[in-house]
Amino acid sequence: MEVFSQLADGFAVALTFQNLALALVGCFLGTIIGALPGLGPSNGVAILIPVAFTLGLPATPALILLTSVYYGAMYGGRISSILLNIPGDEPALMTTLDGYPMAKKGQAGEALALSGIASFVGAFFATWGLVFLAPQLVKVALLFGPAEYFALFSLAFATLGGIASQNQAKAVIAAMIGLGIAMVGVDHQTGVPRMTFGNIHLYEGIDFLVAIVGLFAISEVLLFLEHKAGAAPSEANQKLARVTAPFWMLKKTAGTMGRSTIIGFLAGVLPGAGASLGSFVSYTIEKKISDKKGTFGTGDPRGVAAPEAGNNAAAGGALVPMLALGVPGSGTTAVLLAMLMALNITPGPLLFTQRPDVVWGLIAALFIGNIMLLCLNIPLVGLFVRVLRVPSKYLMPAVTMISFVGIYGISGSTFDLLMMIIFGVVGYVLRKLNIPTVPIILGILLGNEMEKNLRRALEISNGDVNILWGSPLTIGIWVLAIAGFIAPFVVGRFLRPKKDPTVAP
Known about the structure:
By secondary structure, the chain is mainly α. It has 22 helices and two strands.
């Protein structure tokens, strides 16, 4: 089959010493970032983007490094959930419900080992789903014209708040801010400066890497400063007796992992749903199916396996729309999309034909990274637990230094550093107002492409706006966009997990 041939070519790309080393480093750093409460995969990837540019990495190695960080952070989020009852990121929130009770019963090691294996199962089979589903989606996407792409970008904005979104209005405000920022600079079609206020530094527009690092990394530092979170977490429940999962526990949770992997993958493929929904729905459905004796919430191993398999499967599923359509399926994939565009690579259907080395090399690296993560997370979990004891007063200066040195290394411009600080302050204020920052990034990333496709569609139709809904494909996408925007009002309250204020957005 052609898919297996292309995957074999991908392994030939991924199995070089440089790429294997980058995958190992990415998995290790990602697990540490995921384990630290508050940082999460989006922040982790955003912090390391400047590092990838500073190292001068080509497209494929840079993507391997950052996706390894992404997968590693998804694995690592469970560690603080189980040991401290504090989720490392939002998708790991559901793991606290049964993971922490297991730790209190003296089964912290078993819970960590089981969650590591469930994470591996979810991510491994989701990567196979990516292998088979993405090429099929590409065949559909090749039928797209400018009107279909404009509708597709609108679908991305309509659904990025997520089905579990608490306030769609705030997501809309954030998307409008992002689109407004994308309009800054000289209009490439007319040559007219827009919103530059006479400042020549703004003629080329605002670099989205500057915005990403400011909104994610610098705002995180400001939040830590506000809470004065300089102390290390308590060492309670951090002692591990054994770090293996007994056979009876694996046998009992095998069906749970299978069901949750399927649910999580489907949740990840849906634009805007992301790993949080995959984790929550997996846990909820498993509880309804399996919890005959009311043991969920008291330290049931199935309550640990379900959300971990679900959120890691969703992480793989979210890569499907990003690679095949150029539309991110989650906040972290939006940041990865920015990385691709910064490397002059446009994700979408043509990526599979024009740059197969990037696509299949990345997919092969995901398989390798999963095995590395399993090998790292079972025997070395004691090392990652020690990282939890490092006070954040030592970590935050490092994050700040990487951000400043990285951005200056990319552009060599002090103006960009100033812009990064401004975005950091804006990100801090928005997070205090519970306004999501991911739609801003999406607006900056997709705003220009959305405008170009709208102009092309109107030029083709001589200004007739009916072209925007003139084909069955565009009508279908618009129906999905409207349904995705309305869904949080109708079913969101049933799918919305209770959020922890210490968790990163």
